[in-house]
Structure formats: structure tokens, C-alpha cells
Amino acid sequence: MLVRHYWDVHEPSSTSSEDADPPRGEAAEADSGLSSVPAGLSEAIVRLSMQASPTINSGFSGFIGHYYRSLVDTGRTAASLHQPLDGFRQQLIQRFIVPVVSKLPDVSTRIFPVNWVGVQGVRLSVVLPIVMDEGIPLMWVPRASILQALVAARDARARRSILGRRWKDVATDCEQVLTEIVHDRFASDVILGRQAVASLQGGYAAASQALSANLLDSVLRKHLNASLRKQVTNHKNGNRLDIDSFSARLGLTMAPVWRGYAEYWLDKGDRVPYSFTRHASAHAVSKRQYSRINAVVAIMLISSVLKLLDEQV
């Protein structure tokens, strides 16, 4: 499930608005339990189209969405021309095509998180610079309407401005994601993560950022093996995260973590970074590094990383 293999183009067809977010966890799941298979390709594909298209068309593409839509178009064309199919082809449909297509929504939701459903214009060329170069997490948080605004924003400054305006909603989203984490091994991390969220909500952004920055480091050390931890934090000699070596979820979740571990050397005279970094949060406590926007980014990192780890158990 390498990132670029599963995502040639991601172009949802439905819209999302500030006032109409889909409920978390309700990703328009399709009914894949077909009790009987229609006799012909046209009826089978049209029926599957009716069942699966709300999920496929609202948020997923790449080769999965392309394959699905090609089958749907073929089926609808055959239906319009009233072309019957012979018994052998019907058997092929029943045995191979129907099981695959009926499970496509489930496969897709395993690649992309529910907050991406319904978001327009999400392409790898758009998302990758946001997560990798700007260090803004997009996996599981924030909600769809804020994600829509982030991908549509003209530049990094505009995206930080969105996080600054919508920080309360983002904090609520992070709190919700943390409550969804179920495995006991992450229980103490979740407690501290929720404390970081509560600190931000209570008006203590600096305390929240400090806790999140150290918690992030602790989570990576506790739950990632040494090799993976080195990959997602290494900036030596200008190394850049090889996102193509990861699965889609792992790569897109860890890309902003990698950005958050950008090198900072006080003794080399490095300027304190304006965006969130773990090293500057630990070694350059200042008004330039500590801000409410950076505190928001930090709790987003904690929430998305813990959510990923919880789903991988």
C-alpha cells in the first residue's frame, strides 16, 4: 500500500461545507453483503454502483476508484443497449468481479481516514507539501470542513491562519480522536494527550505545546522500533523522508512528524523557527516558537499518531 501506488489522483466528486460535516465514523458505508447476484454484468454493476458509489465517489480514487468507475460505466452501457451475457461471463462476474467491487468501499476506508470523505481537490501534489513541508497533520484530524479549507488555501500562511481561527474546533476534533483509541498500551499516552488538549482549551497554549512536544517524543520512543523512529525523525545531511517506502496511512501520518523534527542547533546560531518543531519547543522556549497555532499543530500530531498506532495493533 505505498503512497503513490494507491493515489495517482484523488479527486472527490461531492462537496463539503463549513456547516455540513459528516458525523465522525459515518463514512457512508456501502452494503457489501449481496444475498443474490444478478444474472448479467450490466445489472450486477449497476446494482453495485448504487450501493458503493456514495463512498467511492465522495472520497476515494487512484486505481481503486478508476477500476470501480470503469466497471460501472461498462455495466450501464451494456444495460442501455440491452446486451445479454452468456453463462460463462455471468459465472466470471459472480466469482471474481462482484466480490472485488462490493468490497471496494471497505478497502478505500482502510487507506484514507473518515475526515477525508467528501473533501474536494485532495491530490497528492496538494497534500504532500502540506504534511511534509509545512508539518500540518491531515490524518483523522481536522474535520472535513477544516480540511477542505486547508487544501483550498493559497499558501502556508493562509493555512496557519485557518488553524488560528478554527483552533477550538480542531481541539475538539483531537479530543474526539483520542477518545476513540481503545488499546490499553496507549492509555497513559491518551490521558496525557487529553491533558494537552484541555490545557489549550483552557487558555494555556504554551503548557499544551510543551506537553505535546515531549509526549510526541515519548510516544515515538515507546511504540516505534529504532529503525522506523530514525526514518521519521532523521534530517542529518539533508535527508528527506522517503514517503514512497511507507504505506499510505503510515507515510501521510508520519510526514508531518518528520517535519516536526527539523534540526535546530542553538549553539550553531540557528534562528528559532516560527513553525512547530520538537527540538525548538524543548531548547528554544520563546514567543517565536511558542504560539497557539503551534500548540494546535502539536496536539494534531499527537492525536493522529496515536490513532494510527491504535489502528495498527
The outline comes out as globular
Radius of gyration: 22 Å
Task: Count every helix, treating DSSP H or I runs of 4 or more residues as helices.
Answer: 14
State the helicity in percent bands.
55-70%
The description of the largest β-sheet is: none
Distance between the termini: 17 Å
Mean pLDDT: 79
Structural commentary:
- The protein is mainly α and 313 residues long.
- It has helices at residues 41-59, 62-81, 87-102, 104-111, 124-133, 144-152, 156-165, 167-179, 187-201, 205-223, 226-233, 248-260, 278-283, 292-312.
- It is globular and about 75 Å long.
- Helix 1 (41-59) runs parallel beside helix 3 and helix 6 packs antiparallel against helix 7 (156-165).
- Helix content is 60%, strand content 0%.
- It contains 14 helices and no strands.
Task: Please summarize what this structure is.
The chain is mainly alpha-helical and 313 residues long. 60% of the residues lie in helices and 0% in strands.
Topology summary:
Blueprint: H1 41-59, H2 62-81, H3 87-102, H4 104-111, H5 124-133, H6 144-152, H7 156-165, H8 167-179, H9 187-201, H10 205-223, H11 226-233, H12 248-260, H13 278-283, H14 292-312
Which structural traits does this protein have?
14 helices; mainly alpha; 60% helix; globular; 313 residues
